[in-house]
Amino acid sequence: MRKTTDTQKKVALWKIIVPVFVFLFLLHCRVWHTEEEMLMHTAFSSGGYLGLNQKIVAVLMAITMCSWMAYTRKRSTGKWYHWRNFVYAFMCGAAVVGLCTNILVVFLFWLNSCFTSGVQTREYIIVNIAPHDRTRKSHNPRSAAWLLNTFSYGEIFIQGDRYTRIYLPIDSAYRLSGERGIYLKMELEDGWLGWGVIRKINSVTTTKALEKVEVRFPEDEQAQASDSCLHEKSEKAFKYTWRDIHIFAKLRNINLSDTTHVSVNQYIDGQKGIPVWEIDIRDSIQPDMARVILIHGETGEVMMDSYE
Q1: Helix (H, G, I), strand (E, B) or coil at 248
Q2: pTM surpassing 0.70?
Q3: How far apart are alpha carbons 163 and 156 in whole angstroms?
Q4: What is the predicted pLDDT for the residue at 227?
Q5: Residues 6 or more apart from 7 whose CB is under 8 A from it?
Q6: Which of 119, 157, 230, 268 is the most buried (most CB within 10 A)?
């Protein structure tokens, strides 16, 4: 009699589990292309798409495995911490992660876009491009990669107001990676989860609106300089762009995001008539000391690297 009761309970449990997994599988397939589409319309202020997926995977795996072990401990009459129970918990967690990761990603993107600010037009400069080409080079019949939503995309690192990363199709990323001094003009809204919702990318240009750049003269020639101490900067003058400065700093372990100790300026040397990038790095121990790096704005040559 007791055996029959246990069998009925097991059947009742499977009647719940099977429809749930079928529903999750169908929902997983439904948001397959939606995830890629929504990613292309999202701007990240910190972190990125891969980091978001890793956090979701860790949370889902932890919740599922802990729930399975708690259920096993409640139902088991022997050693509930047997290694087979951990294997079953891991398998269950892997199934939930495979089915629910992209569902949660799409849900968070949708939730972020529900409450947004007004549309704003902002300009961003591209400092780095990382193509993630996940196209399979060969077909392996034993591979389970087709079960995962591994689409190709380009990760674009930008510099400007608030946001640091956007994502574009892989073809656009490869096309932009061969250009220099690219500026993006985007219409976007600020989402309530901290991500931007991109409505439209108006243009991708190789020239930026003319700006005022300081012209510096030596102290003995400052009095003889004309009143016009601001010249308009052309993109031809500063061929060494923000993207090149970002790579230059990364190779030398200079953290440009540390604005407390690192500052970047650009000016025209009034005596030599050349564009110059200036990177000032202040010592946190000795604030009076600063490392000054001067870079030629056309050739990228290091003109000076010393402490002042």
Answers
A1: helix
A2: no
A3: 11
A4: 47
A5: none
A6: 268
